[in-house]
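Troubleshooting entry. The earlier prediction with S-adenosylmethionine gave an output that would not parse, so I re-checked the input for stray whitespace and re-submitted. Clean input:
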Amino acid sequence: MCYKVYVKGQKFWDQTASDYAGGRTKGRKYILDPALFEIIGNVEGKKVLDIACGDGAITVFLAKKGAICTGIDYSSKLIDIGKNKAKELGLSINFKVMDARNMEAIRNEVLDLIVISLLLPHLSSKADIESVIKQCALLLHKGGRLIISEPHPAFDFYMRNKLRIGDFEYFRSGLPYDFTMNIDGKKLSSIAYHWTLQDYYSAIVNNNFQIDKIIEPRPLDISKGLDRKWYKDRSSYPSYIIFDCIKK
Ligand SMILES: C[S@@+](CC[C@H](N)C(=O)[O-])C[C@H]1O[C@@H](n2cnc3c(N)ncnc32)[C@H](O)[C@@H]1O
């Protein structure tokens, strides 16, 4: 029998950091990343912050395109992976261990673009989501962009298939669910939280941003030949949602 081990918060990410060696998941590679990079567009010479950057995959991509990048994450193990990647590639990226709920240490930055990818369901309260977005508004210049990409709250695979307690209830903000990763044959779980589209919308517009675009990306055609079932499933509902927001 395979028991799940629950690990909370930053320790979970430190203990699962080795999983990143396997590269991007199919969802990231064939759905989220291409759409995210397309909407981000040209970043040459732009000052960019990647919040909850994980192993720095997005940060490194943007630095390769000429952005002046800072990547923050509260997992020191993941930040180390990012630092090593940047070193190997000869990229100068400012990777820092930092909790997104308190970015006081970089308060003096004036940024062009902030990216938040797959962070918000790992925050356990609406107040934390509001606080992260409020700080983004302080860090960006007027007209600067905040791009948030998250699992689609109405359709996400985890919510539908991996709920820990009871049934999925879309309107229950903060509904906890299992977030499980397989590490060396063991299941390691953390708790993530379901937030509604209205929660995201309110946190964005109440904190000095307007939403310019919403994108529900589809899988790339090339992924059809790789795994037909996966492609068919992921083509029938939106796995992710991207908010392109402008600082007012
Ligand atoms: C699903 S991963 C996403 C990583 C990366 N953004 C990407 O899209 O590949 C979630 C990340 O959020 C980070 N994280 C969760 N809560 C955080 C917090 N309060 N402050 C900073 N990082 C946090 C984790 O350490 C992990 O790297």
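This one parsed fine. The chain has one domain: 24-152+196-247.
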